[in-house]
Amino acid sequence: MSEDSSGGRKARRGGRVELVKAVQTPLGFFVLVVLIVEVGLGVLTGLTNGYVQTVLVFGMIGTIILLVLIVAGIAVYRPEALRGLRRGDNVPNPAQDEGHSPTPATFFSSFMDAYEVLFRETDVVTCFFIHSRRWRDSCLQHVEGFLRRANTKLILILPDLRETGAIDAICSHFVDGASIPVFIQDAYRYYHGLQEEFPGKVEVRLYTATYPTYTIYHFGSKALIAMYPTVPRKADVPAFLVSRGDPFWDFIGTDLKDLLRDSCAVSHEELRSLATQHGGA
Asked: Are residues 28 and 105 both part of a single domain?
């Protein structure tokens, strides 16, 4: 067997594989069908003449027109179907595929590079979490840069260390639960310091919920949601970047509105007292 014939068969096999890979959506299938029909009709047109040839030419034209109408109809009523998606599936964002922004759903640590843009695009940031020490350490420069801008505000909703029952429930969900009160008090100190550095721009509110199921980092028209584990273990958690108009946006907005309503704002002096004197630290 010659190398040329073997190479030719491999090339043909490779061509068929590439063709199959290309036809993975309804739009690709339509294009393939039209190409096959057009080639077949073109060959027959070259072998005939007169009335039959005219019919074949009009058949080719009619096939193209029919495909255009079908694709146009699908594009209007079911655009996601052209890409092989079902109704309700997430449509990928080309900019995200090219690495310009994080994917909408991944693990929390994967969003660390996104905060610079998120802080820059809004004037009000509202956060609901237990202490989020890693997030705070990663975003120090972004937070301070955000607060240096005019007309910006940072709102934090944190656990109330005085509610020992709620704190105990929170601690029971983490392998480092014994350190949670210390981390919360450290968050008090940090945000108290921001209040002193940026007067009137940092609001701290305390909640008494037994255990939050997820965190919220709300940036105006976008919100990052990160899950909390249900069992005591240390692991990177799933996170979702939700934009205004997405299916979950209203749900998150309602939760945040209720949290703001049910939490209590603490004064600068009260936060200082909690940050320096609470016995649970």
From this structure: no
Q: Do 165 and 77 lie in a common domain?
A: no
pLDDT of the chain, 281 residues: tens digit per residue: 554 555 555 555 555 555 555 555 666 666 777 777 777 777 777 777 777 778 777 877 887 788 778 877 776 666 656 555 554 444 444 334 444 444 477 888 888 888 889 999 999 999 999 988 888 888 989 999 999 999 999 999 999 999 888 888 888 878 777 888 999 999 999 999 999 999 999 999 999 876 678 899 999 999 999 887 776 667 778 888 999 988 889 999 999 999 999 999 999 999 999 988 754 44
Q: Are 111 and 241 in contact (CB under 8 A)?
A: yes
Give the Cα separation of 74 and 27 in Å (integer). Answer: 10
Give pTM, 2 decimals. Answer: 0.60
Look at residue 168 and tell me if it is in a domain: yes
Whether 157 and 263 share a structural domain = yes
Whether 104 and 78 map to the same domain: the answer is no
Phi, psi of 128 (to 5 degrees): -130, 115
